[in-house]
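User: Could you go from structure to sequence for me? I need the amino acid at each position, not a summary. Structure tokens:
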């Protein structure tokens, strides 16, 4: 296996977090194992890594119930068709994915947009899945224009996905550091949750919010009008963080070709 799996046991629920390797942005898929089924959250960028997630899920001996896509960044939905189950998302996220058109896997394999566009709309609120309450909340602004936040209140698990990165460089291409800072402050106030599942990086505890807040503050300080200068400065400040290619991708959105 190329990815890394971390298992968090919460009694009636076990969460299996599959983190892709550094060269695939450390993007993390969550497999939420309930008593009788598995709910997958986000679908990987490289199809090969999506296949690894699915193979691992099949090894758990329970059926995949659905795939939830939290936001419309390709590293979280490119592998959606590999899961072979209905794809759920907020209406805004569904529309943003559909608008992107066909794409390519890193190997060059074409990914038809019709194969990965969510077909089941998530309405914010509480849904009980296999006896487990899932609380769905819509968040606007931050790492992406629109994101889905998932809470498992009975287990103290908060599925933050790309609202939280853990020991990984941030993608700032949405150009909304202030919005992201606000979102992190709101998450940090959710004291009932002791397990935070990140969209890039390993599962964490609430201490991840302070680290993420520091990085965002540093990025706000360092991000001027020169993408290469910003990359050099942020790498010097966070030399141990994974996913440096995320800086390059963000810089393409912020600065164009000169930011790479």
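Assistant: Here is the amino acid at each position, in order:
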């Amino acid at each position: 296996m190329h990815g890394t799996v971390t298992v968090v046991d919460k009694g009636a629920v076990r969460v299996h977090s599959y983190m892709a390797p550094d060269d695939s942005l450390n993007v993390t898929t969550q497999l939420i194992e309930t008593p009788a089924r598995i709910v997958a959250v986000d679908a990987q960028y490289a199809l090969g890594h999506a296949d690894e997630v699915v193979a691992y899920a099949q090894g758990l001996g329970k059926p995949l119930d659905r795939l939830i896509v939290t936001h419309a960044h390709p590293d979280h939905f490119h592998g959606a068709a590999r899961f072979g189950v209905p794809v759920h998302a907020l209406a805004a996220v569904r529309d943003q994915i559909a608008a992107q058109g066909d794409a390519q896997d890193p190997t060059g394999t074409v990914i038809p947009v019709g194969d990965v566009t969510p077909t089941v709309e998530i309405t914010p609120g509480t849904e009980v899945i296999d006896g487990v309450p899932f609380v769905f909340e819509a968040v606007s602004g931050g790492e992406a224009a629109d994101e889905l936040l998932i809470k498992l209140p009975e287990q103290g698990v908060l599925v933050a996905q790309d609202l939280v990165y853990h020991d990984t460089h941030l993608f700032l291409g949405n150009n909304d550091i202030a919005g992201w800072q606000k979102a992190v402050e709101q998450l940090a106030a959710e004291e009932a949750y002791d397990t935070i599942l990140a969209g890039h990086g390993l599962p964490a505890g609430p201490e991840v919010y302070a680290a993420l807040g520091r990085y965002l503050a540093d990025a706000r300080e360092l991000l001027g009008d020169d993408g290469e200068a910003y990359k050099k400065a942020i790498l010097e400040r966070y030399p141990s963080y994974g996913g440096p290619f995320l800086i390059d991708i963000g810089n393409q959105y912020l600065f164009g070709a000169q930011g790479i």
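One structural detail worth keeping in mind: The radius of gyration is 17 Å.
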